[in-house]
Amino acid sequence: MRPKISELLNKITELTNSSSLTTLEFDLLKQHIRNLYEEVQQLKTSIEELKEVKQEEPKIIKTNNESVLHVTTSNENAVATKDSINEKISSSGSLNEKLKTNNKKEIHKHLSTKPLKELIDMNKRFVLVNELFNGNSDSFSQAVQHIDSVENYEDAKTYVQTELLSKYQWDEASQSVRMFLKLVKQKFGEE
């Protein structure tokens, strides 16, 4: 067993033997478990690569028009495997970089999005219908339904700016317009 794995197992055992863990100790325990997982993954990868190297055919190298059979020893395999693992690890980046997505929307925001209709309670609906849609609840419902049907925030924003702002003469500085725009952002997990 690798010394790093033994060390991590000892640290995990020490922390779990405690009768109660503080928040800091619990976070430390989680980090040790993550590190242990990464070490085990690296060990697994190196074992698989070692098996592949052992299964390779002997290489024939030609020198001065003579064929020379080159047999790789297990020590050479270990060195070659170790170098290739290091190259892979250094080029793969950190765990944080692997989990980072190019999408600006975070996962918890994506999972917490709801239809706009569900985000607007009775009090907000009353204010929005009366102040933004001139008391016409059908127009309000159609606008909400349209926003719920679009794919992304940019399409919803375009709809609000091109259709609703001009049609109803909204003042973007008013509290009710800002509230409506905030609800649209929440619907798409942008706020």
Protein architecture, described:
The chain is mainly α and 191 residues long. The protein folds into 2 domains: 3-99, no CATH class; 108-187, no CATH class. It has 10 helices and 2 strands. It has helices at 3-16, 23-54, 74-92, 95-99, 107-111, 116-119, 122-132, 137-149, 153-168, 175-187, and strands at 59-63, 66-70. The chain has a two-stranded antiparallel sheet with strand order 1-2. It is elongated. The two termini are 48 Å apart. 8% of the residues are buried.
Oligomer: single chain
Q: How many β-strand runs?
A: 2
Largest sheet: 2 strands, antiparallel
Strand order of the largest sheet: 1-2
Query: What's the alpha carbon Rg, rounded to whole Å?
Result: 30 Å
Counted up, domains total 2
Low-confidence stretches: 65-83
Task: Report strand %.
Answer: 5-15%
Helix % is: 55-70%
Shape: elongated
Structural class: mainly alpha
- Span between termini: 48 Å
Give me the strand/helix succession: HHEEHHHHHHHH
Whole-number mean pLDDT: 78
If helices are DSSP runs of H or I spanning 4 or more residues, what is the number of helices?
10
